[in-house]
Amino acid sequence: MSRRRTRGILWRSCSMSVGAVMMVAMAASAASAAINADMTVDGTTYGSLGSNVVVVNQTTDATVTVTNGGAFLGNNIYLGYPTNAGYSNATATAGWVIQDASSGQSAATTYVGKGTHGFLTLDGGSTGGLEANSVALGLIGRTSHPSYPSDVYHDAEGFYGTGTLTIQSGTLIITAANYANDRNLGLNVAVGASGCASCPTRGTVVQTGGDVYVGGGLNMGWEKNYNIGSGSVSQYLISDGTLTVDGTAYLGQSYGRAAVLFQVTGSAATIELANLTTTHATLAFVLDNSSQHISTIAATNATIGSDTTVHLDLDGFTPGLNDTFDLLTVTNGTLTLSQFSLADGDEESWALQLDATGKTLQAVCLVDSEPPSAAYPTPPYLMSYNFEVGDLAHCRNLSTANNGTVVLSTAVRHSGRYAAQCALPATATTRKAYLLGQFTHAPREIEGSSLYMRAYIYLGSDFTVASGTSVSILSFGGFAPPPNGQYTGNVAEVAIRSASGNLVLGQPTGQGSAAGSTVLQRQQWYCVEACLTVDGANSSLAVSLDGAAEYGVTGMSVSAMPDGICAGLLSASSSGTAGSLVVDDIMINDQPIGMEDLAVLLNYPCFVSRVGAPVVAILTGDQAGDSLQVTLTSSLGLNRTVCEQEGPLGGRVDFTVDLHDLPAADYTLTAVLLDSSEQERARAEYRYRKDFSGDPEFTIDAANNILQNGEKFFPVTAFGLSRQAMSAWRDNRYCNNMLLRFEWNPSLLGPDGFEVYLDAAEAIGMKDIGPDGDYRFGFDVGDPRFTVDAVIEYLTELKDHPAIAWWMWQDEPINWGFTSAEVKSWFDAQKELDPGRLNEVLHMGDCYQIGLLRAESAYQTFPFLCADVYSWDIYPIENELYSGGTFVDYAKVADRAVNWNMGLVPVIVNVAVSDVVPNSRGGMPTPDEIAFVAWLSIVHKAKGVHWYPYNAGVPDQNYEAMTRFVDQVTDLTEAILGDDAPVAVTCTSLTGGRIDMRATTDGSEKIYIFAVNLERTTQSARFTVAGLAADEEIKVYGEDRSLTSAAGGTFEDAFSQVGVHIYVIGDDEDPPPDDTVTVRYPIAAGNDDMECTPWGIYLDSTRLSFPYDNVVRPTFMRWQLDIPVGSVVNSAHIEVWSDSNTSTLNPTVLRFQIIDSDSCPEFTSSPYSWTLCAGEVDWTMEPWTANMRYFTPDLTSLVQGFIDRQGYEPDNYVGLRFSYVSGVSRHTWAYEYNTAKAPVLVVNYTPPEE
Fold first, then answer.
1. Residue 653's beta-bridge partner residues?
2. Is the pTM of this model over 0.70?
3. Are 863 and 605 in contact, with CB atoms under 8 Å apart?
């Protein structure tokens, strides 16, 4: 988990050199001074190196604040040092604060709390700090000791000292190799020294930043030669910054009994010690939720023993079973362990061990602190770009100008297979080449006031910066809210400056002079981390390089927390600034991120509801001789190797995991990177809980195919279908028994209403994906809002309903204002309460195109997955005329929906089969266009199709195209969902247009080629199939023709505009044709529909009563049939469009009867009294919504009775009467008003055998 990080530290003195400080001090000629009141040294110098300074010697508090570049000097500086006569009441507190690039210097020793209370706070920014020969914290107040009778003050209150040193920023340098004039000091830093039972002392160092360098030793709890009791406390608490000790760090003394604590929190600190010796001390490690969890102490040699205790604690982080963390590592020498143990209470949770080299002390977690969850884990960071989706369009935006470029780099990358290369030509124009990221919509709020950006950078061999200038490479910035959504500019930048022929990090020229001192080399990776702390006019930026503080900027004005970043080459105008910069592994978080030079990152879908899964392991720091081993283990004893990949690994390993037939248990997928001697270098895990045994009815395999009852299944669904239309859609095979959502009926409220719909589906063997909406909730301000509570309500009441295929909660959640956190909460709740079922989310296709939406959808797609199945909707026929969208654009979105999810989840596409916006925009799609869009989606790896049949009527020929498509995908399921062809297949356009294709196999030796013409003109193409001999037959599926291959395995074919061809190589014959026929009979003339009363005819040109609100005004319609005599009617129904909303929730009953005539005449006279045939069908109608299509109950018995009449012949007219039984009036469109929405009789029949 954690790894040792060795970082070089370049130490700089404070704002003045030592010589300069001494010269100023000599000029000041200050005498010894005692300060007993608050004092501010503002931009000036106080004191001299030749005189002592005492801050507080008795009872009055005083603090010296050095600010604005000031300096505070002394030989010995005492923060609290009462006179002998004052020990009995020395209760004052002395303080020294160094801030704002100010400095301090002590030629001898700085005492913090010598016989009283003292504190020293170092917050000097990037250039301020303190330099001293020695520092002592918490000492007794005299050079004598209570064991000497001459000391009469040893029992007096106040004899002890307490000292606290806080390092927030700046540099602390302790220079001397030896300094022991005062026997209560030790070597250069003494923390909590010279205490005893009668006079305990307390010394504490709190380091939350900055750089500490100790030239000699660090002494904690040192009591000289006196071993007469305990009571002193010595603490060093470090959570950030650097601590370097060139001598020995003594934590505790063999003859001492002080309470010594050295505590490391999180992974932001760097600790490098020449030697480490612990005695009667506690080493504490607090693991946090950062990427590395804990900083590793690095020492040349280390001896741990003599009652040393190791304590482990957690801060916002829960480790898993067998998680391992490096606590201490020896770099060159030896690690000696004796008489050390875990702290009380840690033994049940942790174990200590040495790694295989024997040079690293590790902690191993023994328990599952948090049981595995069925929910999919959410990444802990705010944003990350590692570019492994292989498409830079996945970024918020790319910004280039004047031939600047941003492209994927495969030759140079820090991890995985991809990085981003930004390049500028050597011209004198203003050029730019960078990418933008936006994290406005991260699923959690930013905590605290600091924001961290980590990026790896690589300067190309051609990279140059004009002398005396800079080029910004990283920046924090902001985005305007919708609908504008544009980047508003940078608020804090990190640049590469050219200084004296060297390249260094620093502020952009013109913005300040702050800069680092590390000279950047070309063709080398560097880790740059910038921390922006937002505090209005007091904001600051701290920049580290390879983990060590490099430079900082204070006094910046930043009014609001940024929500965006830029990375690359932000702007250059001089021709001397040019060349390439590669960036990789960009991460944004609200806590320190740290370096990651050796790691395994697992990318995976939610395993819980699947029988197989693809996994992508992204590797950092892998070497040629490394290998990857992956296992799946369980709490029931499963231990299965799922992948063993030998090197070279090339930064990435793709593999699949078989999850069939697994019992309920806790599971762990573990990937381990091994070196050539099979020693572990890095690991990663995915842990999950499966609460059911076996495989669900609907599941997903490792190739992202949807399975039903173990068989591959390509779902074709009906969106928003009414209950009355279900049978027709099933029988006519407009869909393959799959429904999406529920009907447009506001009376079907909540789970109870959805259950009514599910019951209807179950009754005829159909399955539904839903509910996808709930009429109890709205989307306007003030409306009740759909929440996870509603999800839980549905799951609690309906999870056992057999008609549910899988769940979808709200389509287009971004369009309706749902956040990523909300959508993820739905997914999590479902995995906990109904884990065996899948979950689908449907996004607008614009989310893969428009930057504003892309920034939001990034947190509802990988790596922030919130569903098992993803679907999307763009209607290219509509967009082609309305917005200029092209079929190439559509294909691009289809690819992005798959690739931007790392190919980890199946993707389903929505296809319009009617005019999406009637009488406007794109118009009605043709049958060929429907087939084109559906097959183009399959070519681009769609795993299913949702028909979208609203908002206009579906012409007969489109229904026929839908049936034809369902029949074809049913026949070709194994090929559509099959593996890629085992041989190379290519397609070359011969006429310049674009033709997309995909070649697969159905598991046999056959090869299938699905090809689609994306042009509105005819095209020709040549296909080449590796290994295909000449004169082989290539069947063209469904077209009753075949082609013959030429030499070289090629064949050619012509395509009509948006044409589709399916080629089968090695096929025997086409499947037998289906023997049923589906025909749609629309009202064909104005006299074919009407309503009347006993006293008149109403040939309404707008609408028809359906029914009127009493029995005196029935409606009549007729259709001309061409059904052969002797046919068997399989199903029949009528489709009508509502004219208006109903005013009541009470149902209406409408009765259907056949007019007793072999061929119904036109309605030119009143048919009110015409004779009716025996038999009737009643329709109990739910409330209607205006401009929606509704389907009548099945009318097979009535239509079959009509064609069985003795006088029936094809082309006769069947007439129906629609009569009121009960309820209120309804209205449907009349033929004269809208022919596309006129009533349609749909009949499926089997013709007689010839």
1. 617
2. no
3. no
